[in-house]
C-alpha cells in the first residue's frame, strides 16, 4: 500500500500519490496536514467525525461535496451546511 500525500488548493483537499506530487504542485496545490476525516470518507463514522472538524476541514468537505458557501462563513454555519447535506444524503 502506498503512502498518499495530503495537498490543498483554496478550500479543496486531496491525497495524492507521491509520483504525482510534483505535477500537483505545478498546478498550484500545496502540501498540507492530513485531514482528520480522510479515513472516515471510506465508510462509517463520517457524520460523527464532521462534528470535530476545523473550519478548513469543513470548507474542504463542503467543496468536495460541491456545496457552495460564503468564504467568510463561521464554523457553526459551515457545520450546519454539512449536517444538512448529510441528512439529505440519508433520505435519498
Name a few traits of the molecule:
single chain, 92 residues, three-stranded antiparallel sheet, 4 helices
Note down, in words, how this protein is organized:
- A hairpin with a 2-residue loop joins strand 1 (5-9) and strand 2.
- Helix 3 runs parallel beside helix 4.
- This protein is α+β, with helices and mostly antiparallel strands and 92 residues long.
- The protein starts with a strand and ends with a helix.
- Strands 2-1-3 form a three-stranded antiparallel β-sheet.
- The protein has helices at residues 21-26, 46-50, 55-64, 75-91; strands at residues 5-9, 12-16, 30-31.
Please give the oligomerization state of what you see.
single chain
Amount of beta strand: 5-15%
- Considering DSSP H and I runs of 4 or more, what fraction of the residues is helical? 40-55%
The structural class is alpha+beta
How many separate helices?
4
In which order are the strands of the major sheet placed? Answer: 2-1-3
Radius of gyration: 14 Å
Helix and strand pattern: EEHEHHH
What is the rounded distance between the termini?
34 Å
Q: Which overall shape is indicated by the principal axes computed on the Cα atoms?
A: elongated
Major beta sheet, specifics? 3 strands, antiparallel
Taking pLDDT < 50 over at least 5 consecutive residues as the criterion, the unreliable ranges are 42-46
InterPro entries: HeH/LEM_domain (IPR025856), Rho_N_sf (IPR036269), SAP_dom_sf (IPR036361)
Domain HeH/LEM: 52-83
Protein name: HeH/LEM domain-containing protein
Organism: Castellaniella ginsengisoli
